[in-house]
Amino acid sequence: MLDSDGSIDVTESSELTPPDRTLMGPGPSDVHPRVLRAMSTPLVGHLDPSFVEIMDEVQELLRYTFRTDNQWTIPVSGTGSAAMEAAISNVVEPGDTMLVPTNGYFGGRMASMARRAGGEVVEVDAPWGEPLAPADVSDALAEHDPDVFGFVHAETSTGVRQPNVSELTAAAHDHDALVIADTVTSLGGVELRVDEWDIDVAYSGPQKCLSCPPGASPLTLSDEAMDKVLSRETDPRSWYLDLSLLEGYWGDERAYHHTAPITNVYAIREALRLVAEEGIEQRWERHERIASALKAGVEAMGLEMNAPDDYWLPSLNAVCIPDGVDDGEVCDALIEQYDLEIASGLGDLDGEIFRIGCMGHSARPENVIFVVTALGDVLESMGADVDPGAGVSATRRALE
Fold it and tell me: pTM of the entire structure?
């Protein structure tokens, strides 16, 4: 592409034409056409009165989706990891103790961020693929008396949903610990009630059950959590993610802090409008119904789920890899033959599970029939002991 004079001849490069995939992995999920259309609308300034109105609407829609009345509810400018870091780095001060779980990849990321914030990390143990036991959390709280307790509501690496959330938060508050919840794979797809369950801080990502491109990520804080943020003795190490400064932009003042990702805010607004139109409880029910059909199909085919029914996560289905099959080869074949994305395992479950998402706009009957059909075909072609026909039949019956 470089000419002899060092200039670039773009006429020799092709237009950007990514393949049209069906996204059934751990995220991103398929984006709703209305969200894509919203992203093509004209830009305005990030302090334009019309954009301020959109900011207000996004905050109110986020409160509805989180099931909270928290004033401090915003989309952080960045991916879900930015919302995660904003939550942890603002609430955890140098010298604080944070209790984190060991039962998945993203509990480990909580620990890493808490250490970078200057906190002392202690752990509550549970095997990968199992939820935290309330008794173990209570014992760890009594032993370590932490300032902050973090847990993952929907662990993307294991396909496990944390039950008994209210028991965990009550135990933490008995020890005067603030509670931070990772809701990246649950917000908008799995039952989540921030206020009723007494969660102090919850963060999420837009690209999973909200079916929105990454770039503006949900975060909500209770008054108690924000009081701690605003009364810190030291500034957070990140200026960009300092919630005491972001409050000036997203709060009543609307004072300049940074240039918001305007198009991404348009996108999350439209994604949240879709949530409200469907109804949050109806949306939870749809995810469970469609994912149940997927689960019925893979089990009828002869595969096993990684998580027992009591804490199965509808939005992220962890399916055990059959003997004699290479997971990477299966994922590659699904991409090459079917333009279909699923994913392999992470961390301790690398090479042991497939991760099949059922999230947002991807959680549709035609998609689960497609993924069961394609997965069965590829596995059978690789010599796995599966019955693809039985899987598809069971999926269809469950959908009926």
Answer: 0.96
